[in-house]
Amino acid sequence: MRKLILIISVFLPLCAWAQDSLEQCEDTCTHIHGIDLSHYQGDVFWQAVGENAKTAYVYLKATEGGDRIDHRYEQNIEMAKRNGLKVGSYHFYRPKTDQRLQLANFMAQCLPEQQDLLPMIDIETAGGYGTEEFCDSLFKFLQLVEEAYGQKPLLYTYTNFYNKHLCGKLGGYKLMIAQYTDREPVLADGSDFTMWQYTCKGHIDGVVGYVDKSRFMGRHGLREIRFRHDIVVEEKDKEEQTNE
């Protein structure tokens, strides 16, 4: 039987072998783990998710582009917080959509008072732009997000996308890198990253079907991505003084 397993493993792609294993990363390590969810997961039994001691945080999809809103966001964030999870919200960035329109869409959902974690920007497409034009679009948006929330957002992207378009350009930003293998990601510029989304085929009580799972790298932890409410209050006070 052992020889048969070894033979099969040679022919199975590494990703498939890692994804389909019943043993999940959090079963074998001591890192801080979490999940991200959107309407694709359907109804979530949040009490069961909250009772899972290995799940410390959840990122919820709030918006996409200039007008799309995840229709389960409001319910998900309320229930996740009620069941004791640290919660953050993310926006799927569309490079060809007006940046201020996207910011307004995100801010209408991602309310500072509801956030435990930094807002996250999901960067997966260049929208048909070349690297230079894409980066020009992206950094204009990131600057707007930072000004609105008083702190740099967490950035999510894939290893290959980072290496193709963003290599050497994201100094100062905390990163969540997606790579669905049992090998830790390596960025071409040697940059450190805070979190690794290691599977899109995870399982957790309370969610039917697959769920994305991530964990902190090395000594990184939740404190590094906590939402600074004091900064938001300071920025509001400055605006009020300016308007007087």
Average pLDDT: 89
Secondary-structure element order, N to C: HHHEHEEHEHEHEHEEEH
Count of extended strands: 9
Share of helical residues: 25-40%
Major sheet attributes:
8 strands, mixed, barrel
User: Which outline best applies?
Assistant: globular
Per DSSP, the total helix count is 9
The N- to C-terminal Cα distance equals 78 Å
Radius of gyration: 19 Å
Keywords:
9 helices, disordered N terminus, single chain, globular, 8-stranded mixed beta barrel, 244 residues, alpha/beta, 20% strand, 9 strands
Description:
By secondary structure, the protein is α/β, with parallel strands linked by helices. The protein has 9 helices and 9 strands. α6 packs parallel to α7. The N terminus is likely disordered. An 8-stranded mixed barrel has the order 1-2-4-5-6-7-8-9, surrounded by 4 helices. It is globular and about 45 Å long.
